[in-house]
Amino acid sequence: MASDKYNMKCTIPKFELIRLLLRHRRLADDRSLSAKENKFAKFFILFSILIIVIYLMGLAVGLSLIVNSDITATATENLCIGIPFLLLVDFNMRFTMQQTPAHIIKPYILLPLPRYTCIDAFIYSSLISKGNFVWFAFFLPYALMSIVFSYGMATATLTMLLCLVLILINSQWYAIARTLINRSVIWWILPIIIYGIEAMPLYVGSNAGWNQFVNTYSTLGTMLDKHNVLPIFIAIVVLVCITAVNRRLQYVSIERELMRTEVKKSVKKVNKFAFFEKYGEIGLFMQLEIKLLLRNATPKKALKSGFFTMAMICAFIVLSDVYDSSGMTNFWGLYVIFGTMNLLGLMSYEGNYIDCMLTHRENILSLLKAKYVFYSLLLIAPFLLMLPAVISGKWSLLMLVSYLIFTMGFQYFIAFQTAVYNKITVPLNTKMTDKAGLKTNYIQLILVAIVFIVPTILVNILQSLFSENIAYLTMLLIGLGFIATHRLWLRNVYNRLMKRKYANLEGFISSRQ
Fold it and tell me: How far apart are CA 406 and CA 409, in angstroms?
């Protein structure tokens, strides 16, 4: 393995170099080709974060009112009981926002800079990221209302310090898990094991159950109430250790990527999918879509991850009653149907060869039609996986069919709009040091929010005004309307895309590896 001693000497002091690298990262968005175009979308995201902050503050106030009247446990103990759940939510949320150092180091690999120093800069950046402090919109109001006036400022300070260290540990733990998961989907076993260990009081021991879970984690709160700093000391030691592990892992990942040699695989059998040839040009593009998913690492991994996630959620729905409420049923029903689709990054993979496709008239339109047919057929898989929920009596068949048709109609209509605005190429075989992850299509994020939020709100409103069956039939009719007119809105998507083709083409080419 290569070592930093073989790199060219860098005369800049380490801390000055870290400062320069962090400043360079802060300016990255301003240098982006899409910086000016996405100002409104960035405002939308900031507004969404503001809504989350307000929601967390409201949640803190409501929880404080409940805790203040609880005579069985102190406010600090109650907070410590909830921390494992908060850390789990925080870990999952980081998949949409936080990048690993190995992902963002590509522009600096060939520079005469010590790689460990680059990694240190980005690890430091992940520790001081503003996202780590969003949870304090919940912690601080809770501390003021339930801890400060009842147990003193010292207890509140120690509690906030422990929460901060635990969030920082979570940021490093996420980077480790994400890096390993990027290597292989099998590494999802690691988070399952870790959070399974956290939940051990629920199922291990003679007194296993919720009471044992509460007693175990409330002990931390009891120690903080007595101004015992041992939990904070242990948390800091864990933070130092896990940061060191993350630092080494990121370095090894980068070195492994640079030293890896491409192994050419011989193709023993070529699947032509000749069945589609009788459908003309659309059939040929369907063949292309299937081969894209089967032969390339990135889309194949995305599809596998989608099906794995969908299967886990379906199993959880059938085997537990956590998601039996009306709101959760609607959300997860719509999410699982749409969850395995690669449509929200439409044209990202085609960005690798988009120049060739633009040389023939209406090639893109035929591609869009083929994608619509192919992904409509692919909906059969989530439909079959969710049938056990229907058989068990938790969901109705009418609900499942209506959500299927609604997804094929309205959800796909929204998803295909990303083809107009997307101009970021995603490599077909993603590497640890790919730079594609550095760019974000903010309009795409808005469309994602519409896809997953609007349908849930719509069906909840319909169910509050009418019966469930009427609500499901309305969703079904809306879906059928968009399916019946799919040729019209696909043509509209194609025409708008052609008006932006030169700007999109420039973006696709500039974002290639």
Answer: 5
Tokens of 178: 């994400």
Please state, in angstroms and as integers, the Cα–Cα distance from residue 358 to each residue in 293, 365, 489, 510, following that order: 22, 10, 20, 17
Pairwise CA distance, residues 223 & 228, whole Å: 5
Give 401's contacts (C-beta < 8 A, 6+ positions apart). Answer: 476
Contact indicator for 378, 341 with CB cutoff of 8 Å: yes
Residue 202 CB-half CA count within 13 A: 7
Confirm if 420 and 500 have CB atoms less than 8 A apart: yes
Using a 10 angstrom Cβ sphere, with 0-12 exposed, 13-18 middle and 19 or more buried, the burial of residue 69 is exposed
CA 113, 115, 120, 126 dihedral sign is positive
DSSP 8-state secondary structure symbol assigned to residue 12: S
Instruction: With CA atoms as reference, report the closest residue to 92 among 183, 192, 220.
Output: 192
What's the DSSP call for residue 359? T
Give the CA distances from residue 449 to residues 344, 384, 457, 482, in Å, rounded to whole numbers and listed in that order.
11, 26, 12, 19
Question: What are the Cα distances from residue 477, in Å, to 304, 329, 402, 405, 483?
Answer: 31, 20, 8, 8, 10
Tokens 């059938």 -> residue: 318
The pLDDT profile of the chain, 513 residues, written as one tens digit per residue, is 444 444 445 666 777 777 777 777 767 666 655 555 556 556 666 777 788 888 889 888 888 888 888 778 888 988 999 999 999 888 888 876 666 666 666 667 667 777 777 788 888 888 888 888 888 999 999 999 888 888 889 999 999 999 999 999 999 999 899 888 877 778 888 988 998 888 888 888 778 888 888 888 989 989 998 999 999 999 999 999 999 999 899 888 877 776 765 555 555 555 666 677 777 788 888 888 888 888 887 788 778 777 777 787 788 777 777 667 777 777 777 776 665 556 667 888 888 888 787 777 778 898 999 999 988 888 888 888 888 888 888 888 998 899 889 989 998 998 888 888 888 888 777 655 554 444 555 666 677 777 778 888 888 888 888 888 898 899 999 999 999 999 999 999 999 999 988 888 888 887 775
What phi, psi does 37 have (nearest 5°)? -70, -25
Judge contact between 365 and 491, C-beta under 8 A.
Answer: yes
Residue 501: enclosing H or E segment and its boundaries?
helix 501-510
d(CA 109, CA 31): 19
Q: Taking a C-beta distance cutoff of 8 angstroms, is the pair 508, 348 a contact? A: no
Q: Which helix H or strand E contains 59, and what residues bound it?
A: helix 39-68
Q: How far apart are CA 422 and CA 402, in angstroms?
A: 29
Nearest to 132 by CA among 173, 73, 185: 173
Query: What stretches of 260-296 show up as alpha helix (H) in DSSP?
Result: 280-295
17-54 exposure pattern, b = at least 16 Cβ within 10 A, e = fewer: bbeebeeeeeeeeeebebeebbeebeebbeeeeeeeee
